[in-house]
Amino acid sequence: MTFLHLLVLVLGVVAAIVGADVLGHRGLGPWPIALLALALIPVAGWLYSPWLAAGSLGLALGAAAAMVAAWTRTFAQRRRLRREQLRRRELTRARQFEQTARRQR
Predict the structure, then answer these.
(1) Predicted confidence band at 105 (pLDDT cuts at 50, 70, 90)?
(2) Please, which residues have CB within 8 angstroms of residue 29's CB and are 6 or more apart in sequence?
(3) Which residues touch 23 (CB under 8 Å, ≥6 apart)?
(4) If you ran DSSP here, which 8-state letter would residue 35 be given?
(5) pTM given for the model
């Protein structure tokens, strides 16, 4: 690959991340960009176009990065909510135990 092909690849990654962000604000997520990248791969092979192959590879890498970031964010959020739920449960149990101890005195 030449420098220009690598530049097209990097531009594809950037375009995919920006597109995934815009689509994420609309509630769609990055899947349409990944679908476009998958559709461009056979077209690049059919046309023997290294430019199109570099662009589709960049789009695929950017979409994959956006998906992994979204999954990681969701995992961290669920984990934080679970910890908060456990903390609240422990506080509730401690209060109940304290109230029971006061009643028995």
Answers:
(1) low
(2) 20, 23, 67, 70
(3) 29, 30, 32, 33
(4) H
(5) 0.77
